[in-house]
Structures are given as structure tokens and as C-alpha cells.
UniProtKB/TrEMBL annotation:
Leader sequence segment: 1-20
Keywords, ordered alphabetically: Signal
Key word Signal present: yes
Start and end residues of each stretch annotated as Disordered: 113-134
Name of this chain's protein: Spy/CpxP family protein refolding chaperone
Length: 134
């Protein structure tokens, strides 16, 4: 009986240590765990409202968004010390995402998507000379 209790205690201790080490790994790599479903749902819902997606498109786009967000977090973590490489990988990811969207969306939806993307990425021009000298 004592050996059974000792074996069980030893096994429980090893399981606890392994669990703690796994949590430490995820603390070091925040993008490696599962991507937040709320982020995926918000992004997909926003696109659904703008592009008027049907149900099949919504499902396929949600999976593409899940992959994109997971890979984006991974790139940001992996290349945080090298901003030029990070930007290059992010541009490559964006090109892959747009290619996937072109397979999912209709031509009119794709056109609307691209104009929305350009609008989102274009920097806002300052109005007037507020806060400037002169």
C-alpha cells in the first residue's frame, strides 16, 4: 500500500512540474497558443457586415482569418529583434491572405475589400497647420 501511495505521489509531482514548464513555454511565446476566438469572430463579423458575405464565405473567411492572425502573432514574436525581416514576412503573409480572399470572395466583394484595405492602410493627412510652427 505504501509503494502505491508513493508511486501515485511521485506521478502527481511529475505531472505538476511538466504542467508548470508548459505554462512557462507559453509565457515566453505569447503567440504560440491558440489565437483568440473573439479576435477571429470580430474581424470576420466586421468583414461580413462590410462585404455582405453568404454563410459559406463567412465560414471559409473565418478560417482564413484564424490562420492569418495566428501567423501574424507568430511573425511578430519570432522576428521582434529584426524589424526589416518582420515587415517582409508580414507583407508575404498579407499577399497570401489576399490570394486566399480572392478565392473566397466574388469580384465585386474583392474590389470592395481592396478599397477598404487601401483606406485602412493609408495614413491620415493632417488637416491645416495645427500644432505646427507658423
Amino acid at each position: 500500500m505504501k509503494s502505491l501511495l508513493l508511486t501515485l505521489t511521485l506521478f502527481l509531482g511529475l505531472a505538476t512540474v511538466a504542467s508548470a514548464q508548459k505554462k512557462d513555454k507559453y509565457a515566453e511565446m505569447p503567440g504560440s497558443e491558440q489565437i483568440s476566438e473573439a479576435r477571429v469572430a470580430d474581424l470576420t463579423r466586421q468583414m461580413c457586415n462590410q462585404l455582405h458575405l453568404n454563410e459559406a464565405q463567412y465560414i471559409r473567411l473565418r478560417e482564413a482569418n484564424r490562420i492569418k492572425l495566428a501567423r501574424l502573432d507568430e511573425i511578430q514574436w519570432q522576428y521582434k529583434a529584426d524589424p526589416t525581416q518582420q515587415h517582409a514576412k508580414m507583407a508575404e503573409l498579407e499577399a497570401q491572405y489576399e490570394a486566399e480572399c480572392s478565392r473566397i470572395l466574388t469580384p465585386s466583394q474583392l474590389s470592395l475589400f481592396r478599397t477598404q484595405q487601401q483606406h485602412d492602410t493609408a495614413p491620415e493627412q493632417p488637416v491645416g497647420n495645427e500644432g505646427g510652427i507658423g
